[in-house]
Amino acid sequence: MAKEKLVVIKEADLTNNCPECFNQELKLTFYQRHTYGKLYDRTTKDITHEIKCKKCGSMIYPVTWTEDIERVYDYYQKMIAPDRASIRFTALFYILTLLLVIVVAAGVYIVLEGII
Questions:
Q1: Which regions span the lipid bilayer (predicted)?
Q2: In this structure, are residues 69 and 61 in contact, taking their beta carbons and an 8 Å threshold?
Q3: Does residue 22 form part of some domain?
Q4: Total domain count, the chain
Q5: From 24's CA, which of 18, 35, 37, 78 has a CA 20 to 30 Å away?
């Protein structure tokens, strides 16, 4: 089973007021989803975000955003540069592929030479 991990792309401290406690210590974080398996490591194009108040610890959901928070969120969303969606194969994948090629080549050699 592949493991999924959210990798932080960008973090920003916001000076907007928290809708819960009215403090000016918010943190905006953008994440990109990475999947790690035994045969491959995959970077997806899925981007998620969260806004959290540093003082009261509450998550600020889009329903409670003010116009200022939306404006700042749009600005930072344009600034993020996520990694390209890609697949990187692990060494185990290449070893298994090489072994498969060797077994097939040996089978073809045995059939052509008529050893069996």
A1: 91-112
A2: no
A3: yes
A4: 1
A5: 78
State the Rg of the chain over Cα: 25
**48 part of a folded domain:** yes
Helix (H) or strand (E) holding 88: strand 86-89
Residues 6+ apart with CB under 8 A from 88: 40, 41, 42, 43
The DSSP secondary-structure symbol of 61 reads: -
- Helices (H), ranges, the chain: 67-79, 91-113
Domain of 83 in residue numbering reads as 3-89
CA 109 to chain centre: 45
pLDDT tens-digit map of 52-72 = 998 888 888 888 888 888 999
pLDDT in tens, 25-38: 899 999 999 999 99
Is the confidence at residue 108, as pLDDT, over 80? yes
In a domain, 21, yes or no: yes
User: Per the domain annotation, does 69 fall within a domain?
Assistant: yes
